[in-house]
């Protein structure tokens, strides 16, 4: 959460910074748009307003035939009002106003369409939120005409709506009359169908399941034949069970033979009552035979043979009785089958007859329901017909006017205050939008991060805007602290102490390169360094103007003749600071600089001075700076804040490196501290050295650094005249 808050705070600071940087553009945009709005407002024609306030009545447009909720026919209030006030501006409403007031002739229009267009262009309708009130406003240069036309529009709307309502109701009456006639014909046809179905079904009275005579739709008719059908079905079921029982018994007996059939005879329901006695006699004979056998009589014993004869006779009699029983069962089965067939045939005929009768009764019931439904529908249609007819004769007012339009004393358009406020707001919005757009499109160097990100080298110093030449200022100057920071950073960033020859270049002209080098030489001399400042900008030399000396004799003389260094070096009024002017400008400056004589000059100067600072021309477009970057130990790039695009700055570095030079760092120059508050951290010495702060009292001078003399070096600095004349320096 803290990181998010810090990020939002930083974004707000950046946005405010953009506004401050482009404040002039914002003010200019504001003034231009505001002035434009004022001029347009001034030249706009003054128009008066005619205002009508009325309440729209939410009349029911549809004819309600069936009893339903009125919500189905009543739209929401906002929809109704929206539709109605939109209809006010329709041609059907406004053309009668054009014709009634003869607006075509009054406004000198070529046709009715042009008059209608002007009428609609000056007409405005508004509705209140969640309210049935609407306002009609018309604007005209004549106050009386504005009120007259507004009232005419309101009256035309009301007349038009009454006509629409009446036409809709008349159409509804016609439609209802046709529907009533059609339904009456359908009712007569349904009654005929009902009578035919009643005759076909043989219905004497309207007998229903509840025993009452009712014609309510949905009732069910029944007849007395239903119970008879149910009895026949039960008899048919019993006959079917009897046939199945007889068949099962016959099938079971037909499977038995001889003794098995005789043994089952006792369990059968035989019609011959003697069978029971014969079964008893058979059992006695079998017991007697068994007794004889047990007594030791053999099978051929006369007594055993006699008993066997009697047993065979008894079995034969029983078997005959059983066969007679089976024959009787067969006869019963045939009779049962005939009876079942007869019952089934009779039942089918009865069911068919009953089905026909029920179909006729169903047709009758359907016809009764149809008649009842049509009668009910006719009742509703007739009720709606008479209600609509009564509503047509008593037309309700479509709107209630609460305020008619009257001529106003002052014009309503243009609204001067509103136009000016909108112009001011739009101007500010345009200015701020342009500011952010230009900031987005601006690819120049804006911050230290831009330099270090694209070049990969450190920013050694941030130089404020409008810094003067330090050696010309009197007293204590806090601007010198920026160059002292530069001096300190140079000391710590050059890895080799012997690399004391530094050339200063820039990407383009006017970036403050010469002033930066002059002030750097001044603070280095104040710090105790013996400094030689060489003006090697042989295209547009400027350094001599900063020291108020002539450049008639200087570097070019030394490089093209055999003069000694002492003859061209000037001792400045600043202690420890010496200056070599450019000399007369040659035709081929790059060729002069790219010579053995120049290499010897740099080598000689490095051995005599603690620092050798060379001012070179801009490196982009000319080759002089490339030659000097190759000859010098280090190269310092001066970049003007918010001037060169980032890709051009990268090209400056690449150009230096391509010729074998070493980029020491970048000086960000001409920074506007008032608009770019992010740099105040790097220039806080202004506050620290303010007059109210006693950290740097008046007359304070920094401690001078003692000149370091290399072994074997002879330094014979001779006092020079204060006007910067040349002297014997070595």
From TrEMBL:
GO molecular function: ATP binding; identical protein binding; non-membrane spanning protein tyrosine kinase activity
Keyword DNA repair part of the UniProt annotation: no
EC numbers on record: 2.7.10.2
Ligase is among the record's keywords: no
Top-level lineage group: Bacteria
Lineage: Bacteria, Pseudomonadati, Verrucomicrobiota, Verrucomicrobiia, Verrucomicrobiales
Protein name (database record): non-specific protein-tyrosine kinase
Transmembrane segments: 23-44, 416-438
AAA domain location: 502-659
Protein's organism: Prosthecobacter fusiformis
Pfam families cross-referenced by the UniProt entry: AAA_31
Class of the enzyme per the UniProt entry, highest EC level: transferase
Coiled-coil blocks: none
Compositional bias annotation for Polar residues: 720-730
Record family assignment: Belongs to the etk/wzc family.
Reaction(s) catalysed by this chain's protein: L-tyrosyl-[protein] + ATP = O-phospho-L-tyrosyl-[protein] + ADP + H(+)
Gene Ontology CC entries for this record: plasma membrane
InterPro entries named in the record: AAA_dom (IPR025669), Bact_polysacc_biosynth/exp (IPR050445), P-loop_NTPase (IPR027417), Wzc-like_C (IPR005702)
Keywords of the record: ATP-binding, Kinase, Membrane, Nucleotide-binding, Transferase, Transmembrane, Transmembrane helix, Tyrosine-protein kinase
Region annotation Disordered: where it falls in the sequence: 696-730
């Amino acid at each position: 959460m803290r990181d998010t808050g810090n990020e939002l705070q930083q974004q707000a600071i950046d946005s405010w910074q953009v506004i401050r940087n482009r404040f002039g553009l914002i003010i200019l945009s504001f003034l231009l748009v505001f002035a434009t709005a004022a001029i347009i407002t001034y030249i706009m024609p003054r128009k008066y307003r005619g205002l009508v306030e009325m309440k729209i009545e939410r009349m029911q447009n549809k004819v309600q035939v069936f009893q339903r909720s009125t919500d189905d026919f009543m739209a929401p209030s906002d929809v109704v009002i929206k539709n109605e006030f939109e209809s006010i501006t329709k041609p059907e409403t406004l053309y009668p106003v054009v014709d009634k007031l003869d607006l075509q002739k009054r406004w000198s229009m070529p046709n009715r369409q042009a008059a209608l267009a002007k009428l609609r262009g000056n007409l405005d309708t508004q509705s209140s939120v969640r309210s049935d009130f609407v306002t009609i406003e018309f604007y005209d240069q004549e106050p009386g005409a504005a009120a007259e036309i507004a009232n005419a529009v309101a009256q035309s709307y009301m007349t038009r709506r009454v006509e629409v309502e009446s036409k809709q109701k008349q159409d509804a009456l016609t439609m209802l009359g046709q529907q009533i006639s059609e339904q009456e014909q359908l009712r007569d046809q349904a009654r005929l169908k009902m009578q035919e179905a009643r005759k076909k079904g043989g219905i004497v009275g309207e007998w229903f399941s509840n025993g009452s005579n009712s014609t309510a739709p949905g009732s069910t008719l029944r007849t007395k034949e239903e119970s008879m059908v149910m009895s026949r079905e039960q008899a048919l079921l019993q006959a079917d069970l009897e046939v199945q029982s007889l068949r099962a018994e016959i099938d079971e007996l037909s499977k038995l033979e001889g003794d098995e059939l005789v043994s089952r005879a006792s369990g059968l329901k035989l019609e011959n009552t003697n069978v029971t006695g014969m079964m008893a006699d058979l059992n006695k004979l079998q017991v007697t035979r068994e007794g004889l056998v047990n007594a030791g009589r053999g099978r051929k014993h006369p007594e055993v043979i006699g008993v066997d004869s009697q047993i065979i006779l008894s079995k034969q009699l029983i078997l005959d009785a059983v066969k007679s029983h089976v024959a009787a069962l067969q006869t019963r089965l045939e009779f049962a089958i005939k009876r079942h067939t007869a019952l089934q045939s009779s039942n089918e005929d009865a069911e068919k007859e009953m089905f026909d009768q029920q179909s006729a009764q169903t047709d009758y019931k359907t016809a009764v329901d149809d008649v009842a439904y049509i009668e009910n529908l006719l009742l509703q249609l007739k009720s709606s017909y008479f209600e609509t007819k009564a509503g047509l004769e008593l037309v309700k007012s479509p709107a209630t006017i609460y305020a008619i339009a009257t001529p106003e004393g002052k014009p309503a358009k243009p609204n001067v205050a509103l136009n000016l406020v909108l112009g001011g707001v739009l101007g500010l919005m345009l200015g701020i939008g342009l500011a952010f757009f230009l900031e987005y499109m601006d690819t120049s160097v804006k911050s230290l991060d831009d330099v270090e990100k694209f070049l990969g080298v450190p920013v050694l110093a941030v130089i404020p805007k409008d810094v003067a030449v330090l050696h010309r200022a009197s007293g204590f100057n806090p601007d010198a602290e920026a160059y002292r920071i530069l001096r300190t950073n140079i000391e710590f960033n050059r890895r080799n102490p012997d690399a004391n020859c530094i050339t200063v270049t820039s990407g383009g002209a006017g970036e403050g390169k010469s002033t930066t080098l002059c002030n750097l030489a001044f603070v280095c001399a104040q710090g105790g360094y013996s400094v030689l400042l060489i003006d090697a900008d042989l295209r547009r030399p400027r350094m001599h103007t900063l020291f108020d000396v002539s450049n008639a004799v200087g570097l070019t003389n030394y490089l093209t003749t055999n003069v000694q260094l002492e003859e061209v070096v000037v001792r400045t009024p600043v202690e420890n600071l010496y200056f070599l002017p450019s000399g007369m400008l040659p035709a081929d400056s790059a060729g002069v600089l790219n010579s053995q004589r120049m290499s010897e000059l740099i080598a000689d100067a490095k051995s005599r001075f603690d620092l050798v600072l060379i001012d070179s021309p801009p490196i982009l477009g000319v080759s002089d700076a490339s030659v000097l970057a190759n000859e010098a130990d280090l190269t310092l790039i001066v970049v003007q804040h918010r001037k060169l695009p980032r890709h051009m700055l990268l090209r400056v570095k690449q150009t230096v490196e391509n010729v074998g030079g070493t980029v020491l760092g970048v000086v960000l120059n001409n920074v506007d501290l008032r608009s770019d508050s992010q740099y105040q951290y790097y220039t806080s010495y202004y506050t620290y050295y303010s007059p109210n702060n006693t950290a740097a009292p008046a007359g304070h001078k920094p401690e001078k650094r003692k000149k370091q003399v290399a072994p074997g070096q002879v330094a014979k600095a001779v006092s020079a005249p204060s006007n910067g004349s040349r002297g014997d320096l070595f």
